[in-house]
Amino acid sequence: MSQFYLTALQLSICLGPMAMGIFITMKVFNIPDITTDGSYTLGAVVTAVLLSSHWNALAVLPVCMLAGAVAGTCTGLIHTKLRIDALLAGILVMTGLYSVNLIILGRSNVPLINIHTVFNTLSLFSTDLYNQLFVALVMIILLVFLLRYLLLTDFGIAMRATGNNPVMTQSMGINNDIIKIIGLAMANALTALSGFLVAQYQNFTDINMGIGIVITGLGSVLIADALRIWLNVTHIGLQILFVLAGSLLFQLVLAFTLAMGIDPNFLKLVTAVFVLLIVALPRVSRQLQGSLPNQSKI
Question: Where is average pLDDT lowest: 78-87, 162-171, 250-259?
């Protein structure tokens, strides 16, 4: 049973970069980016094709992130230059990526059995799961420090200001369109990184593996936002850690659901209900708190 939850921990770490990408689009720019479903699969597809061609896993990593960044750039250009709603721009790019991914992959799924992966780079433990967990932790820790550093630089502050008050930043001479395009490119590069990790973790890539994955990242970000409000945290580094904690909690809930013996066919339904509860409970709580003074007067 402990190994069952360790597997959930490993998957949550692999999906952590995607949750961080959604954090950038949702909480920094206030943009609902649906490109995630396509760029996540794109990262996994590029990984499968290049690893099958005997590329080194560390050499595949930047190629995957570059592919995701190109997908995010396309969404950013459609949104900023063609003045199309960000949600619709993401849907258009996600839809187009399905065909692109299928063309690159060549078939619906590709197994990655007996292929040297990024998780084989270090063999410090006798158990494969522990080695995978260690490598994933090292990568995610480096990623957290890099993202924290970026968001605390002048450019990162400009990104956050653009999301909070684009009129003010434009009056200060900041090109909001360029900032948004770069932000969307970064977010989808992180999402493709998750596809890179998950494909190697599960030893296969499927063309449909990204369908609905955005709700997993969204759930992680919503959990992080609830923790931020509850603990009154404003430091950007802690907010990033909360996103990773949200990803872990999300996967633990799904693991607990499966451990209870619930039919896996209901897993997507459980996911949707869990996210709904995360979104609805704070609102219901605020409404109840707002109605208490009126009730006391009666």
Answer: 250-259
Residue 44 has pLDDT above 60, yes or no: yes
Residue with tokens 């770069």: 182
**Residues 253, 5: Cα–Cα separation, whole Å:** 10
pLDDT of residue 19: 93
Give the whole-angstrom CA distance, residue 46 versus residue 130: 26
- Six-digit token pair at 185? 């490119």
Token couple for 219? 């759930």
* 74-94: pLDDT as tens digits: 999 999 999 999 999 999 999
127-148 as b/e: b if 16+ CB within 10 A: eeeebbbebbeebbeebbeebb
* Torsion sign across C-alpha atoms 34, 35, 37, 40: negative
Taking residues 182-211, report their average pLDDT. 93
Q: Rounded to the nearest 5 degrees, what angle is found at the Cα of 276, between the Cα atoms of 272 and 282?
A: 160
Give the pLDDT of residue 291.
Answer: 60
Say yes or no to pLDDT of 195 above 80. yes
Place of tokens 């991914």: 101
